[in-house]
Amino acid sequence: MDERAALTLLGDELAHAGDDAAVVDGQVLTTDMLHETTDFPEGTTRYTAGWRAVGASLSDVAAMGAEATAAVAVYAAPTFDDEALLAFVDGAQDVCERVGARYVGGDLDHHAEFTVATTALGRVPETDGAAERQTAPPVRRSGARPGDVVCVTGTLGRSAAALELFDRGAIERANDLFRFVPRIDAGVALAPHASAMMDSSDGLARSLHQLADASDCGFAIESATVPVDDAVSAAYADESDAAILETALTFGEDFELVFTVAPDALESVRAAVPVDVTVLGEVVESGVTIDGQALPDAGYDHGA
């Protein structure tokens, strides 16, 4: 059973599952697990591992349009090295500080390989109501409507470029690319406008299919609009433009926000969001296409 099948199975049992995070009484809660063999290439510093592991959970909070409040982590390794452990905590603290949250601890365990389980907490913002402050609803995956435009924050492909650089021994630059900034500020700014949203950790193509399934709609995007990070073009300079585009579409682990909004909200969105916003295409009745051709449901798979 692959990850998608497992999630479908659990979704049938858990009525509230299906978004990037759970929402309980206005509090947002999410958890992730990362392993050395699948998530931390050789050369990944413990500082980067702490930043990236906690950042992955903070990204899920961002995708709900929520403010980040705190994070914890389980650090498991064959042995506990004081320098490595403190570097991990430094990375976890710094990524939390970067988005206005706090790293408040966790747990330790011995394990055959370096493994991290992280949990992040957030809260949906309050808005000024007529008589009192009210809690704004979280942004879910299920609100996209035909006629909306579909957009993405930032650029795509940084993690793919990082892996290529890790393989080449360009360790410092690879670690730099691996330390992404969770889009908490963008998510909060998008919350009043977005009809649906999720993060792009599984890749843009797969994210579009997941949004389409949740919202019972389709997407039509154009390849010329896909914001490929300059680092991808540099790392894959010998590859064709088509191969570079494929990498940006499907590699995943970029942790940008993929969202839909009404066309007349675009100006307000661009004014409010503190990072670049790219319009990829539009929401349609059914199907997921790029340049008029079917876009395969391909992307990151934890079960692969």
Automatic annotation (TrEMBL):
Miscellaneous field: Reaction mechanism of ThiL seems to utilize a direct, inline transfer of the gamma-phosphate of ATP to TMP rather than a phosphorylated enzyme intermediate.
Record-linked HAMAP family: TMP_kinase
Binding residues for Mg(2+) 3: D20, D60, D199
Reactions catalysed, as given in the entry: thiamine phosphate + ATP = thiamine diphosphate + ADP
Gene name as annotated: thiL
Residues bound to Mg(2+) 4: D20, T30, D60
Positions of the PurM-like C-terminal domain: 145-287
Domain PurM-like N-terminal: residue ranges: 18-124
Residues holding Mg(2+) 1: T31, D32, D107
Residues noted as binding Mg(2+) 2 in the record, renumbered to the chain: D32, D60
Function per UniProt: Catalyzes the ATP-dependent phosphorylation of thiamine-monophosphate (TMP) to form thiamine-pyrophosphate (TPP), the active form of vitamin B1.
Lineage per the UniProt record: Archaea, Methanobacteriati, Methanobacteriota, Stenosarchaea group, Halobacteria
This protein's name: Thiamine-monophosphate kinase
GO molecular function: ATP binding; magnesium ion binding; thiamine-phosphate kinase activity
